[in-house]
Structure formats: C-alpha cells, structure tokens
Design goal:
664 residues; alpha/beta; Chitobiase, domain 2; TIM Barrel; Glyco_hydro_20_cat; Beta_hexosaminidase_sua/sub; glycosidase; hydrolase
C-alpha cells in the first residue's frame, strides 16, 4: 500500500495521516444517527469501542433505522503478536463501512472515523472518502514515568485514551526507579511499602489498567529498572547494596549511580522471586529491565566486587583495569535466563549493548541513532527513543523529524526489519499527576504520526501543526487535561480574579529546555510542588509559534514582489499582537506585587513589553520602507539579548522570531 502524493493535497485533519485517501464529493449528514451493524459474536472490545465512538459522535441513542456503520473483520487481533492493524474505511452518502483482517484494524479505523466529522454552517457531516491504511512500524509507544511522580490510575487511563486516538499501541510503564517502587509485591512487600510509601498500584489496579489498555488494542510493557536506578529497592532490602551503606528512598532527581550488587547469589534469588511474580502479573511477552546510567563507580569502589571481576576475567585490554560493562553483561545474562524461564523477551536501554549480549534482547536507543544502528547490525531488534523525549520541552517539529529509518539509511533490508519502531518518552522529574498531560499532549501525536504514517506523508511540518491543533481539541474532548490543568493553575495563581494578563504572559513562556531546571537555583525532589508559572507554561508555545510563522511570512513577502493587500493584513495582525504584549506588563504589575510566588516572573513580563515596543518600531520602519539605523540595531541587539535570559526556570519563546523581524 503506497502513499498517494496527489491525495495529500486534499485538505484533511486526520492524524496520523492514512496511507491512502481518496476523497469524493458527497457527504453523509450526521443529523440522522448511525446504526451499528456488527456480528453478535464479535470481539467485545470492538463492540465497546464502536459504542463509545457513536456515543461521542451522536449521543447514546441506538437507532433502529438510518444510515449504517457496518463493521467486518476476520478474527480477534493480538497486539502482543504484532497482528495486523490494516483496515479500510469507506464513507458514502448512505453509510460507513469498515473492513479489516483483525479486530485491531477495526479499532484503528474507529480512531480515524472519530476524526472525520466536519461542522459547516451548524451542520455536521462525514465527507465521502475511501481510506486504505496500515502502520509503518509495528511498535509505537509512549513511556509514562510513574516512579518519580506517582500517577494515579485515572491519569494512566486517560492517557491510554489519548494513545488510542492517535494509534499508539504500546504503553511503556516505568514503574520503578531511585525515587519509587510503584507496584504491590505480595512476595517482597517491603518493595512497595517502603518504595511506594507515597503511592503504588495494587495488583488489582494493575489488572484493571491492563484490561483497559487491551480493550483499546494497546499493549503494556512494564519496566523494572536494574541494576542502577534501584535505590528504592535497596532501601527496602539493604542486602541488595553494593556496599555496606544504608539507603533511604532517593529524594533527588540527580543520577545517583547507586547500583545493586551483581556478584551475590542472594541478589539473584530476590530478583528471581520478584520477576516470577511480575511476569505472571504482566502478560505481555516483552519485559523491560532498564540497565541505563550505571557508571559502575560503586562496583569499582568495592574491593570484593573488584576482586570478583578480576577473578572472572572482567578486565579491560590492559589486563588490570576492571571492566564494569562486562560485569553488567554478566548480570544481564543472569536476568535474561530468569525472564526466558517465564517466556519473556528482555528489553533494555542502549547502555547494555555489547558484543557478548545475547541477540534476542531488544535494545531501546535513547542516546542517539548510532546505538540503534549498532544494535541491529549486531542482530538485535531495536527501538528508537532518541529525538522523542517529550520531557526536554522541545517543539513538536523537533520530535516529528527524527525517523527510525530515514530515507538515507545505510542499513541493509535485513537490518531494517529489526527496527521495530519507537517510543515517545515522558520522564517525570518536572511533571506530576496534575500537569503531566500538558507535557505529553499534543506533541506525542506528532511522534505517533511519524511512527504510523508513510514516510512521504510526514514531510510537511506546517500541515502537521495545522492538524495537531485540531487533534489537541479532540484529545481535550476525550478527557485529557493538557489544556484545562494549566488554565486551572493560572486561575489559582491569579487568585481567581482577572487572569487575562497572566495568561498573556504564560502563553509566550516555555520551560527551559533539556534538564536545565536542575541547574538554575532550585533543587527539585518528588515533594517539590509543581505549581509555579513555569509549570503552567506550555512545553511549546503555540502563540509564539504562530507569531514566528507570521513574521516569516511577512518577511518573505516583503522581499518578494509587492503584494500590498496581504502585507497590510500581516502588519495589522502583528501590530495587534505586539500592542497586546507591550501593554500587558502594566496590567500584570499589580498581580505581581500582590502574589510573591509570581514576582520571579516580573523580569520576563518587562522584557516582553520591551521587545514588543522594539518590534512595533520595526514594523513602522518596514511600512515606511526605511532601513534601521546602526544605533537602532545596537539597541535592538541589547534588548533581545536581555530578553533571552530565563527567569523562574522559564524563558520567552518569541525571542528567535523577534530577532528575525528586527534583523539582528
């Protein structure tokens, strides 16, 4: 099945973009409710999904007559076996038909159907279309980190709904880390009693989430991170430690490098007991054991562990220096044997990759594309997460462009088949259960399209953003809180008074990128409240992005042959936006005075006004056809350099576009 570039020119708001779309001229009016036509022996997940869709589309009514939604499929699909998700969806003026080889294809078709309705002059209809669709990659995941900040079951469930809406099919549930152990263990209860003192999932809650995900065609991949990122394990069972120190659950987000002891048989006895219990609880054939960010310092510092490495030949080429990577490979082999005993396929982060690692282990690359390529060249199945780290607060475009298999890939066809797909990752150092949705959505939908849609259909970044904004509204209607939670934070900060000026500032702020919040004057712990303006600010400012698009469009047209009517409209829109920013600081100052928690953002408000004043002057120059003087350019450079400085771990998102408009 191939992507038809001609069809790409037809405007649509589907995301991910289907493999083939053929648009007709007719329409199916939704004034009359659709009647579901489905075999009574159908997979209960299909019937339930169809009824959920119809309820959202037209209300709870189940009409006896009217246009038909006919669903046909061959057999029940098993996501854990990578069963087909292919489907065809046909809308005509008389009804809707869905055909698929498996029930999984039906679930994906229903997600597409939910995005199809158009509202025009108060009339809602489905456009006539014939869609043939299938995923590019079989593994399309989202990692949710419940270890650093506990995420209650309703948070997990609503994000599963978001995943289903954009055809993601693997929930990577990061359940343990230095800061927490989040699953009830009946075999080793101190793990959740100590490591999950501030929140954990009972086994019944885990089963509830698994059933909820399965009903939406989504697998759940559990991650129990060892041998590092395991301080919460050691706090619960000190005999796991690599030294004689006693640890509490780690209360920092800096990498601890504390690792469990891989040389004691008691370590493997405990792990075997735990993995026996957890592999039975989580039915997915894949099981993630982490393996990342262990620099081996605690192993090297231990005379006993160093002696073990030398005794077993775990030394570097000089024959003297102990090699922690060989010891971790030894550990991985022991863990692999435990998992294989229970029929599981082991997954680990790319640090575990090495020439002696068994080929059946899946490698998840987070440090760079090189690690994915090295993995498949060594015969390992592999996943890409590098480029898809949502917690870094990069733009949707920056997550949209990385490709597990770019067009210029030098991998052989056999090696390419080992690239299973990829996962977006949301690590939760700076996201709790209140704001986590706003850090995942809608940007995760851009990753979902990259992993589902044909490569040729994912080249237009501007069109991606057009559809992303529509998908964001759909996700909000599904119950995701990526729009509502930040607004509620703003209301609380504004004292439930006039929130407009605070919102105007927040809309053009973004959190500082990457992990810079660790290094800007605050020490964060799992107990640090995430209720400041930086937490209400969007990960990517849509207002700033649109401002940048408008600036670039105006500058392009200004350099092209004159188009006065268009230029006037652009100048008017830019001027209105800049006037709002220029006057906003005055309106906001009283709130900053009355609310001490907001005062740290006063400099950003003042700088926003200064930038707006500067750019209003530049618009006047452009309108008059005047070149800026050297003195003006020097002042502009100083103003914009100052505006680029962060405050309160947030930064103004308009500075780059402002520099382009100012010409500096």
């Amino acid at each position: 099945m191939s992507y038809n570039p001609a069809q790409a020119q037809a405007p649509h708001h589907l995301m991910p973009a289907p493999a083939e779309m053929h648009w007709g001229k007719g329409r199916l009016n939704l004034k009359t409710p659709l009647k579901l036509q489905l075999s009574p022996t159908a997979d209960p997940a299909v019937a339930a999904a169809a009824r959920r869709l119809l309820t959202r589309l037209q209300g709870p009514a189940q009409p006896a007559t009217g246009p038909v939604l006919q669903i046909r499929y061959g057999r029940t699909g098993l996501p854990e076996k990578f069963d087909e998700e292919r489907y065809s969806l046909r809308v005509t003026p008389v009804g809707v038909s869905i055909d698929a080889p498996t029930s999984l294809g039906v679930l994906r078709a229903l997600a597409t159907l939910e995005q199809l309705p158009v509202t025009e002059k108060r009339q809602r209809y489905l456009p006539e279309v014939d869609i043939q669709d299938q995923p590019r990659f079989a593994w399309r995941g989202l990692l949710m980190d419940a270890a650093r900040h506990f995420l209650p079951v309703p948070v997990i469930k609503r994000n599963i709904d978001g995943m289903a809406a954009v055809k993601l099919n693997v929930l990577h549930w990061h359940l343990t880390d230095d800061q927490g152990f989040r699953v009830e263990s009946k075999v080793l209860p101190r793990l959740h009693q100590v490591g999950g003192a501030d929140g954990y999932y009972t086994q019944e809650e885990v089963k509830d989430v698994l059933a909820y995900a399965a009903a939406r065609g989504i697998r759940v991949l559990p991650e129990f991170d060892v041998p590092s990122h395991a301080t919460s394990w050691i706090a619960s069972y000190p005999r796991l430690a690599s030294n004689d120190s006693t640890y509490g659950v780690y209360r920092s987000f800096r990498t601890s490098n504390i690792a469990i002891d891989p040389t004691r048989e008691t370590t493997y006895t405990l792990l075997d007991s735990l993995f026996t219990e957890m592999t039975a609880l989580f039915p997915d054939p894949y099981f993630h054991v982490g393996g990342d960010e262990n620099d081996g310092r605690y192993w090297r510092r231990s005379p006993r562990i160093s002696a073990f490495m030398r005794e077993h030949g775990m030394v570097k080429a000089d024959g003297k220096t102990v090699d922690k990577h060989q010891l971790q490979t030894y550990f991985n082999r022991r863990v692999l044997a435990m998992l294989q005993k229970h029929g599981k396929i082991m997954v680990g982060w790319d640090e575990i990759l090495g020439p002696d690692l068994p080929k059946e282990i899946v490698i998840q690359s987070w440090r760079g594309k090189k690690w994915l390529e090295d993995a498949v060249k060594q015969g390992h199945p592999a996943l890409l997460s590098e480029g898809y780290y949502l917690d870094l607060n990069y733009s949707a475009a920056s997550h949209y462009l990385p490709d597990p298999l770019p067009a210029n890939s030098t991998l052989t066809p056999a090696q390419q088949k080992l690239v299973l797909g990829g996962e977006a990752a949301m690590w939760d150092e700076f996201a709790d259960s209140v704001i986590v949705d706003s850090r995942i959505w809608p940007r995760a939908a851009a990753v979902a399209e990259r992993l589902w849609s044909p490569q040729a259909a994912t080249q237009d970044v501007a069109d991606m953003y057009r559809r992303l904004n529509l998908v964001s509204l759909e996700l909000d209607a599904l119950g995701l809180r990526h729009r509502r939670a930040p607004e509620q934070l703003l209301l609380r900060m504004a004292g439930y008074s006039n929130v407009g000026p605070l919102r105007t500032l927040a809309e053009v702020l973004e959190p500082v990128k990457e992990y810079k919040r660790h290094f800007q004057g605050m020490i964060y712990t799992p107990q640090t409240p995430l209720n400041r303006l930086v937490d209400a600010a969007p990960a990517e400012s849509e207002v700033a992005r649109r401002f940048g698009v408008l600036v670039d469009s105006m500058l392009m047209r200004n350099a092209a042959p004159p188009r006065p009517s268009v230029s006037v409209r652009q100048l008017a829109a830019l001027r209105a936006q800049l006037l709002l920013w220029q006057t906003n600081d005055t309106r906001l100052q009283m709130m900053l005075v009355l609310n001490p928690a907001l005062r740290e953002y006063g400099p950003l408000s003042t700088r926003l006004a200064a930038v707006a004043k500067l750019l209003l002057e530049r618009l006047t120059q452009l309108q008059a056809g005047q070149a800026p003087s050297a003195a003006w350019l020097a002042t502009a450079r100083t103003t914009l350099d100052a505006a680029q400085a962060p405050a309160g771990q947030a930064e103004l998102a308009i500075v780059k576009a402002a520099r382009r408009l100012a010409g500096v």
